[in-house]
C-alpha cells in the first residue's frame, strides 16, 4: 500500500512502516555523504552541536550534480549507504528517524535502528534525474567547502521510496 509521510516524522510513524511499504515523502530531508558524516562525527566528538536538529529527521545519502539552467538541483540519485555505516549508529542514538540510500546496511546499523525505532528507505538508483523533479527547494546549510558533499536542506514533494529495513529489523535484502 502506498503511503504519504510528512517529514520529519514521529517515532510512531516510523514504527508503523513495514519492510516493503511504498512511501512518498513530503517535507524536509537533509543530504549528507561520506565527508559530511565524518565532519558531523568530529563535531560531536568535540562536544559541539550538529548543524541541524537530527531528532526525527531523515538523511538522504546523496550528492547532487550541478543544476541545469532553470532547475533547483541537478540529478539527485542515492549513493551507497554502507559508506556511512560507521557513523550511523551514533546518529540514530541521537534521534535520527530514517535514512534514504541504496544497498545493504551492517548488523550494527540494523541493531541501532531497532533500538531507536528508525527505518531505512531505498530510493531507486539510476533514477536521479527523475528524483530531482520531486525536490522543490534546495539550500546548502553546512560544510559548503565540501562542494557536492555539503549538507543540504531539501524540501520534497511526493519523493518515492521503499521501506527496505523497518524498525523491527525486517530486511528486504535478506
Question: What does the main sheet amount to?
Answer: 5 strands, mixed, barrel
Number of strands: 7
Rg estimate, integer Å = 15 Å
Q: What would you call the structural class? A: alpha/beta
Amount of beta strand: 25-35%
Number of continuous helical runs: 5
Measured between the Cα atoms of the first and last residue, the distance is 21 Å
What's the shape?
A: globular
Strand adjacency order, main sheet: 2-3-4-5-7
In short:
With 174 residues, this protein is an alpha/beta fold. It has five helices and seven strands, in the order βαβαβαβαβαββ.
Question: What does this molecule look like?
Answer:
The chain has helices at residues 11-16, 34-45, 88-93, 107-116, 128-132, and strands at 2-7, 22-31, 58-60, 98-101, 119-122, 135-142, 151-165. By secondary structure, the chain is of the alpha/beta class. It has a five-stranded mixed β-barrel with strand order 2-3-4-5-7. The longest helix is centred in the N-terminal third of the chain and has 12 residues, at 34-45.
Keywords:
single chain, 174 residues, alpha/beta, five-stranded mixed beta barrel, 5 helices, 7 strands
Topology:
Layout: E1 2-7, H1 11-16, E2 22-31, H2 34-45, E3 58-60, H3 88-93, E4 98-101, H4 107-116, E5 119-122, H5 128-132, E6 135-142, E7 151-165
Amino acid at each position: 500500500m502506498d503511503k504519504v509521510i510528512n517529514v520529519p516524522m514521529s517515532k510512531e510513524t516510523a514504527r508503523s512502516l513495514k519492510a516493503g511499504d511504498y512511501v512518498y515523502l513530503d517535507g524536509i530531508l537533509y543530504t549528507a555523504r561520506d565527508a559530511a558524516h565524518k565532519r558531523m562525527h568530529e563535531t560531536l566528538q568535540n562536544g559541539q552541536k550538529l548543524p541541524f536538529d537530527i531528532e526525527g529527521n531523515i538523511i538522504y545519502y546523496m550528492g547532487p550534480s550541478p543544476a541545469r539552467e532553470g532547475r533547483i538541483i541537478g540529478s539527485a540519485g542515492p549513493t551507497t549507504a554502507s559508506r556511512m555505516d560507521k557513523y550511523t549508529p551514533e546518529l540514530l542514538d541521537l534521534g535520527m528517524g530514517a535514512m534514504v540510500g541504496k544497498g545493504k546496511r551492517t548488523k550494527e546499523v540494523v541493531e541501532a535502528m531497532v533500538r531507536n525505532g528508525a527505518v531505512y528507505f531505498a530510493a531507486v538508483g539510476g533514477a536521479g534525474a527523475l528524483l530531482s523533479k520531486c525536490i522543490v527547494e534546495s539550500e546548502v546549510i553546512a560544510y559548503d567547502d565540501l562542494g557536492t558533499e555539503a549538507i543540504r536542506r531539501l524540501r520534497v514533494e511526493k519523493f518515492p521510496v521503499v521501506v527496505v529495513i523497518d524498525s523491527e529489523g525486517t530486511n528486504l535484502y535478506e
